[in-house]
Please model this.
Amino acid sequence: MTSLVNYEELDRQIAVTQEEVDGLKQKLHAAQVRLVNLSNIRVNAQALDEAPDPDVTFFPSIQGFIEADVVRGLGQVRQEADGVVVLGGQSSRKRIRSTEMVADVVKEADVPLTRDEIFTAFENTYGFPETWTNPRNALNNAIARATEKGLIVQDDDEFISREAAERLVADKARMENGDA
Model:
């Protein structure tokens, strides 16, 4: 019996459509990253505009993840156990190393985490700086940067540390080769 369907042509069309879908997924991901970045730029700009006193900056409970303070003039710097307080003079804004902090949270978990799980683990581990007016956006931006830098790996809606992903790939290869 003769088939009414040209399977070769159908397979070709499936492959072409899959390539289109893959391309659109990449464009969507790039647009999502850009959206998060633009949203965070706006939030950060607004936070800078609304800062009550630019000469006093305090970030609780994230000691060790703040870049070295640069103080111009004769400002005094006092370091406390739970953060850094800059008193007097003009100080540069401190950079919170949220990208590395996200990578550390994911690495510490050693299992795939969703964005919500990263958010909760980040909050439990470090808390959120007072200057973050929208912690969810700031953290989504940090997740995107950590993924772009290869510090963490995204698989569907979950993220895993690069080291754990490499272990999983190696384990899978060993199992496929019968070395398990």
Summary: The beta strands are 71-72, 76-80, 83-87, 90-91, 152-155, 158-161. Residues 98 and 142 are 6 Å apart (CA to CA). Confidence is low (pLDDT under 50) at residues 53-93.
